[in-house]
Design brief:
about 110 residues, about 75% helix
Length: about 110
Amino acid sequence: MTLELLSLGGFMLSLAGFGAAFEAQQSPRLDRVRWWCLALTGSVLWLCLIGQVAAWVTIVSCLGFLISLVGVSLAAYAEPDAADDEPVWWPEFERDFRDYVRQGVRRKEPK
């Protein structure tokens, strides 16, 4: 019973990780979850292959492992988020702000 639940849980987690690999956001926490899911499904698959369990449990474990492996691979080769890049207006704002600060410093010096 426990192996069946682990197999189904790993399969569901691998599907979620696979779906999240197509999302635009990539976070270190999500990457760790994907790797743990891969380890879980691999371990359950190994136990299913060396133990005598029902065929459907082995098939679900194998599918979960393969889906998890593909999800980790897709996430590893994904392009970085465009949200991490600075906005188009940022360099001009930064330059103007530096000029503003310099003008404020120059006004205070003659005291």
